[in-house]
Amino acid sequence: PAAGPGLRAAHGRPPETHRARRRTQAPRRLLGRMEPAAVRCLPGEPKLTISFRLDGSNKRMLRDQDEPVGKVLARISNGLAKSQGKAKKSKKKKKGTQPGQTTPQQEPPPPAVKLRFDGEEVADTVPNGAAWRDGAVLQVGDVAYSVQRNAPTFVTAELPASLLSGFPVCPNLEVEFGNLQDCEFTWFKENAPDASPEAAEGPPSQDAGWTEVGRRRVHVPSNHDIGFRLKLRCTPKDGGRGGAPKELVSAGAVEAGPGVCTFDNRHAYTLKEAEWPAVRVVTYNILADVYAQTELSKTVLYPYCAPYALQLDYRQNLIKKELAGYNADIICLQEVDKGVFVDSLTPALDAFGLEGVFRIKEKQHEGPATFYRRSRFKLLSRHDIVLSEALTSDPIHSTLLEKVSANRALKGKMLRRSTVLQVSVLEDLHKPGRQVCVANTHLYWHPKGGNLRLVQMGVAMQHLSHVISEVTPGAPLVFCGDFNSSPHSGVFQLLSETEVPLQHEDWSSSGPEESCSMELRSGFPPLLSACSQPAYTNYVGGFHGCLDYIFIQPDSMQVEQVIPLPSHQEVTTHEALPSVAHPSDHIALICDLRWNP
């Protein structure tokens, strides 16, 4: 029936057909289930990106922020018209035409492409940066999209290559415009090929073939998962605002774990975090992959270790479980490969509440990393140095440099080393203003390098004394690391007794050519080795000894608990370290320190 005169008067134009009216109302009706159009637009950046799915393919447009939006809409319209034209030509070719037969050429008009906000059409002259607002609706023909501007988005989303039963699976995730703590996670296990009839009769879902097994960020597969792949569906979020979910499927199936590891009994002492004002500290040389994968390592240093147990993916499973189970507040690691820090340890320990900083040794492609619990500490400042560079460039070391320069051979060897000292000043979040200086290093390794290690430690202590006096006066020092020094060494004496005399045997440890006798003072009161002097912290086929330490200032901190080291039987079950049950040739030191408020 014809429309009444009231309708014509209200709109000032001929009445719309029912079909046309339905088309204009479609965006409103479909709002609840519109496809997303993701727009990334940051102030200060000249370009923005518009991403959406059209005709079965993903579209991603990079446009100038100051370009009129009409140009983008025209580009979308023309692109769609071209793809539809190609599809029609392809159909005609398949159908074929008789000789002499002609087909009328009737090109359809380009589909209408509009951008609306609050029901109003956005003018073509509005620049992109202002036009693509959150909540706007992009209408492409009959399809409507909800514009999500700077919505939470995963820019990195990966599952580890190796999955072991009983060991945490920590996805490597990086979110933009969101917060990992707000994100939602759902884990699925692949169903067996002969899924039970009961499962087949269950309600249909988009996860047919998968069974939900967890909803935490980190998932620990069980023995029932062995032989099956895992899938993670993760939704990026910022508070209540969500973005497009991602689905990750593991490359391989869950494999059987090694059973009992050397650290499992130690975890019984660290089931809970230390209670304030106590602080749990860990130091651990985790064995860099650049050293574990050499022929020397496989055939000479660790011939007793199964080759698969030296593989990085396998060892990382063990390291992540071991570190997570200590529930530490401060973790100082040595021999951390750059890739391991970025892709493995940072995402894993972040999931367990820890943040970290890393300092690479350029020549070795590995270095120390320091992690701290974000609920306990805030990182105030970093004061890392390369020991050899500091010796020659910082005036505070001029006296030491003068003494070392007396022996050209020793000085040359010192300057060739890329050893770093990582220094982090942390503030106690429970008591603002209360700070601690955490130092982490890995000294020169050679058995005859005692003289070089003394010079390195001399530079380190002078630097630490300067940092504390200038940056955080009165803050206690916690000095962790692999010092490659036994309790009888000059380095240990320097720290525990404050000075090393001229005649100490380490000054001539590498022979008369590199001998360099001097008196060396630490600049600190006597420090205490918090975990005392274990029989060994490094146990390999040809050597065992105590090389790793956590030194503290006993006037500021007292030892509350030292976590027992693995028994000798546990360490030697597979002859030596590393092994299928222990990921490094070193053993972690862990202690709880009572830090006087």
TrEMBL record:
GO cellular component: mitochondrial matrix
Cofactor(s) in the UniProt record: Mg(2+)
Residues in Endonuclease/exonuclease/phosphatase domain copies: 282-586
Keywords: Exonuclease, Hydrolase, Magnesium, Metal-binding, Mitochondrion, mRNA processing, Nuclease, Phosphoprotein, Transit peptide
Region (Disordered): 1-37, 56-112
Main subcellular location: mitochondrion
Intracellular or extracellular location(s): Mitochondrion matrix
GO terms for MF: metal ion binding; poly(A)-specific ribonuclease activity
Pfam families: Exo_endo_phos (PF03372), PDE12-like_N (PF21171)
Ranges of biased composition (kind: Basic residues): 85-96
Sequence ranges of Basic and acidic residues compositional bias: 56-69
Domain called 2',5'-phosphodiesterase 12-like N-terminal: residue spans: 152-255
GO BP term, example: nuclear-transcribed mRNA catabolic process, deadenylation-dependent decay
Family: Belongs to the CCR4/nocturin family.
Protein known as: 2',5'-phosphodiesterase 12
Species: Cyclopterus lumpus
